[in-house]
Amino acid sequence: MTPQETAPGDLPSFRLDGHLAVITGASQGIGRTFAIAYAQAGAELLLTGRDDGRLREVQRAAESAGGRAHSISADLGNMDGIRSLEREVCGIVEASKQQLILVNCAGFGFTKAALEITEQDWDQVLDVHAKATFFCSQFMAKLMIARKYGKIINLSSTWSTSTDAGKSVYGLAKAGVSYMTAALSTEWGPLGVRVNAIAPTTTLSENTSKAMRENEARAGRLRSRIILGRFAEPADLVGAALFLASPASDFVTGHTLYVDGGWHAGG
Fold this sequence. Notes:
Radius of gyration: 18 Å
CATH superfamily: NAD(P)-binding Rossmann-like Domain
Order of helices and strands: EHEHEHEHEHEHHHEH
Strand order of the largest sheet: 3-2-1-4-5-6-7
Largest sheet: 7 strands, parallel
Helix content: 40-55%
CATH topology: Rossmann fold
Structural class: alpha/beta
Number of domains: 1
CATH architecture: 3-Layer(aba) Sandwich
CATH class: Alpha Beta
């Protein structure tokens, strides 16, 4: 029985046994949380990030959770880093017969007034959030198509469809991720590759928590737009990440799933 097939009466599986998951931005925050959850669900992991020390800590945590993990340091803000990662990943994947998952978590929060945006800001935000997502998806899709099956999960944001002061370039990048998700699903779906995205509201990480503490008025205003009355924690996104990676979502593609505590309904 292929991963796409479920016998009549069977409950869909959220397990990831027999899967190899490549997770970018895995050294902290959402990527770290997904790595440990995927390990608990039975996946083998290939973790990448810029901070080698933190990355190895996540690798150990994933292995303690029951998974097998590899770590590769890479800066995905430039094509040299992306191509270096591609070579490393292909070397591991080609020796494996497992089904493949890619989770594009590499990214960073960015808030800056439009009148103050520099070309360097523009390039950095678009390179990490859009370019890296596209080219990592491209090389992983080739490997998935050879297996006639694969899952790509991108990280979008509520800022892809909402506006606020300081979010012009970040929102543009995330809107591009959601559009890219739909476009790639159209091309690769017939070849067996499902492409979806998760769009969280503000999610508390080390840096985000610090920013919210430093501007309590803005934090309160943003929180008031969320029906459930709080910002997200990385753990709030795990259910969506497991669903979209697992056989349970085999008939879902081209979709951006908002995990936002009711942000859109409340807005």
